[in-house]
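thought: fold this chain, then report.
action: predict
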Amino acid sequence: MKASVAIQVLPKADSDEEVCRIVDEVIAYIKSTGLNYFVGPCETAIEGDDYNQLMEIVKNCQLVAIKAGAPSVSAYVKIGYRPNGEVLSIEKKTKKFHEN
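observation:
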């Protein structure tokens, strides 16, 4: 993988349940992209080879939150990009912490 992003979507909402509902819709969108992703408690990591595709996904996450009913949305994004190599994969970063 040449690029990875971690995105935390923070929709404005009236209740925790509404925040979760909106974030669930954003995660469903991320899943629909077909890219490898990992949902954590505070952010979702996504990885792929096409940097522009990942940036489009970051943009669309906010649009999905608005379409789901959030009057406004903030996002924190971390980007790792290595055009001439490989970034550390989600698996390499987390596997040792999820083994039984």
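thought: worth noting. The helical segments are 16-32, 51-67, 90-98.
final: tokens above.
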